[in-house]
Amino acid sequence: MAMNPVLVSVPTVTTTETDRRHMAAALVLADRGLGRTWPNPSVGCVLVRHGRIVGRGVTAPGGRPHAETQALDQAGEAAQGATAYVTLEPCAHQGQTPPCCDALISAGVVRVVVALEDPDPRTSGSGIQGLRSAGIEVCVGILENEAREHQAGFLSRIIRGRALVTLKVAASLDGRTATHTGNSKWITGESARNAGHLLRAKHDAIMVGSGTALADNPSLTCRLPGLDKASPTRIVVDSGLRLSTNSKLVTSAREVPTWIFCGENCESSSRPILEKAGVTVFDVRRRPDGRLALEAILSQLGEQGVTRLLVEGGAAMATGLLREDLVDRVAWFSAPKMIGKDGLASIGELGIEHVGDARRWRVMTRQAWQDDSLVMLSAGQ
Predict the structure, then answer these.
(1) What 3-state class would DSSP assign to 335?
(2) Beta-carbon count within 10 A of 15 CB
(3) How does pLDDT run across 56-82, given as a tens digit for each residue?
(4) How is the beta sheet containing 111-114 ordered, strand by strand?
(5) Residue 144 a catalytic site member
(6) Residue among 141, 117, 159 at smallest CA distance from 8
């Protein structure tokens, strides 16, 4: 369920180019944790004393210990009198670990530079206020836009109650993902496919429809060297529990978590077999047309702590999410090939009658390898 945080307005302090440089370094650290720290945000922290970095930290896999704690442990006594650069407001609530704002105070930090205020009601300005009450100078808003983009998944879960949804499409120039026979290997080249695997590593979970799972029998893991343990939780939207108990997703469920969303009161003899294999099965309400309610799935994922969701297939899933305005980002991989009208379309019917009614996506980044390309797009919300 979405929360309604009350953000506290806090004054800022003039920053310098040095502050921006150290915060940029903290954001690079934070990027390393994307896909591994949920339900907690991935935060970066850099401690600087007399112009020298004395400690670095990033939220550990699983969300603990926090970045500030790790940086302070690395710095030791050198943290006294230092400036802390933190990509998200230090937490002020007691969880499984003590509040990070208290740890900074106890360590003798004299200045804290914060990129972004935390919208979580348990902190939401109180961490900043606690630091100031202890006599620590606090500057808020340095590289805020960059931090907001970095924390888009966490912000989405806290404010909207659901993960940030990124739709990944690998298509030919004419928007086809396979030939009329269903053959799709390979639309793009190796470099583009590696970029797709890196996307998996940067997301908490990856979702496909049952049609894709049945047709392709995918593993949905990250197969880049050194990132094999960064594979996201695999999710299959399978209203009738049709997924084979011998599929790769099921037989590897104890190594890489696999979740299936099926319809309420779905009666299937495979359910106890799936659960015995380590698959987690969720029941979701159906829409009047019999399909599962995608918004309800995203809400349940939010309740489970998922902040960043990558959707890889297929066209029915992509079309459903787009029709319901549930896509926040698009990762569009394009190959210089023409497959033709008889090929499988990447997106189905959206019911748009006028060009002016079509959503105009904002280009975030562009990347190219040999002939293939990747354009990252934002819904611009």
Answers:
(1) strand
(2) 15
(3) 999 998 878 999 999 999 999 999 999
(4) 52-58, 44-49, 83-86, 111-114, 137-140
(5) no
(6) 117
